[in-house]
Each structure stands twice: as structure tokens, then as C-alpha cells.
Amino acid sequence: WNGDTARGLRALFDDQRVRAVGECGLDFNRDFSPRPAQEKALEEQLALAVELQRPVFLHERDASERLLAILRDFRDRLPAAVVHCFTGERRALYGYLDLDLHIGITGWINDERRGTHLHDLVSEIPVGRLMLESDAP
Questions:
Q1: Which CATH superfamily is domain 3-13+28-132 in?
Q2: Is the pTM of the predicted complex or chain greater than 0.85?
């Protein structure tokens, strides 16, 4: 993340068709970028969402505790947020729900190797906060 990145992202919002910030977040599963760099980029994008009052689409893999900690600092000022492609555990789900976030469910729920734990969890998501994503069953 640098000044050029910030200016480039901000310029996108000159187009009224751009309605949200993201997908942004933390991916500690693959760690393609150093974790401190991921956190800085996320915080900058959340600050932009607050400034522009745009909703946020969030990505999280193996980083729910850190994402929740960062979101707590911004949540009261964000208009709305969606945790895209939720694949986490019950603790993470309730952390996101406690912050009044929407939860996106994808086809991952049908993956017999990694998605079966979502079968029970999906029924715990309030209907008004559940988002079925384009590749959802």
C-alpha cells in the first residue's frame, strides 16, 4: 500500500457506478503479502469507506480474530459490511454478527472436504443478514 495505491483507489470513486469498497481484508492462509502490509491496506480501505460512506465487501481466511479487532475500530462509522464467502467457525460467525455484519455464503458449503461445518452454521445466520452469493447453491 502506498500513496499511488490510495490515489488510484480514490479515483475509482469518481465514477458513480462504484458503490462499495472491496473486496478487501486479510488472508493469513496463503500469506501472499506480509501480514502487517495486509493490515495496513485493510485499515486504509476501511478509512476510505468511512470517509465516502460506502459499504465494504470483506475477505477473510484464517484471520478472523485479527479482522474482528480491526473492524471494531471502524464499525460504528461504516454504513454496512459483508463478510464475503464465509468459511469460518462458529466463534468467527458470532463475532461478525455481533458487529451487525452481513454474511455471504457460497458454493463452499457443498464442498465435502471443507464445507460441511457450514451446514449447521448457516441456519444460525439471521435471514436479514444472510447473503447468497452468485455461486451459492
A1: Metal-dependent hydrolases (3.20.20.140)
A2: yes
